[in-house]
Amino acid sequence: MKTMNKALSLFLAVSSCYLIAAEPAKPKGHQPTPESKASFIRDYDLNKDGTVTAEEFAQVRQQRFSSGDENQDGVLQLDEYVNEYANRLDKRLHAEREGQIKQTHTRIGALDKDKSGSISLAEYQDSGERAFNFIDTNKDGVISKADPAPKRPAGEKPEPVRARPALVMPTTHSVAGMLAMYDKDGDGKVTKEDYLAERTAAFKRTDLDGNGDLSADEYLNEFVDRLDRQIAKTRQSQLKQAEVRFAALDKDKNQQISAAEYQASGDRMFARWDTNADKAVSMKEALPAIEPSQRAD
């Protein structure tokens, strides 16, 4: 019996090795994307020519280290590292907030079809129905992950690759956005009936004077309230991530980042994006292979 148990154990051990070897390797770290490369170029392209040279990259990195080193002792403490990042993040969030508000003014004008100076419930729901029908690509009256992405009209040029924004607001331009905004019970789907009912309720909440129309101020104030809540949430999340990055850069775990540690992290990041090793990074280069992220910020 002992011999049989030993043989069975050996068989199971060998079999498990074959099973492990047969499984495809799972990607580790953050998958490089054109959007993440565009973000890298946006952050380090000093002369805005679409290419980040090794010299530009080194100059920006030095500026960030010097700016963060508030007491000029040659190292970054946690609060110095986070504060330097927070200053850059706040500037970006402010600029994107202004852009979102500008787009909202344009949206108000587009919704006000009869140019009455306000948005009626009919105008509001008409816009909502168009958005629903566009995303409901299988035309079953339900938005879910079963809906294929809408096809681009024939002959229309693809959107240019853009850097990732710091601020992301859920929108009705995708299945994910629709679910984030309207899937209240979390079942992964939104029926048209539930969608229009939720929009009616939102219209009434926004119509503060109860006159049955949304003024430009009412529409804008409701959006700005959601916008500022999203900014606060984004800021909190991003600063927590900065603390995680600090721990990763602090290789000797002495609770501070030396100039050498900071530079080594930057060297790894630049080399990762510079896939043709020509000391410059542009959108024309191939993306890096999928590997553990060496992001530095």
UniProtKB/TrEMBL annotation:
It holds the Pfam family EF-hand_5. InterPro entries: EF-hand-dom_pair, EF_Hand_1_Ca_BS, EF_hand_dom. Keywords: Metal-binding, Repeat, Signal. The keyword Magnesium does not apply. Coiled coil: none annotated. Residues 32-67, 237-272 form the EF-hand domain. Residues 1-21 form the signal peptide. It comes from Rheinheimera marina. This is EF-hand domain-containing protein.
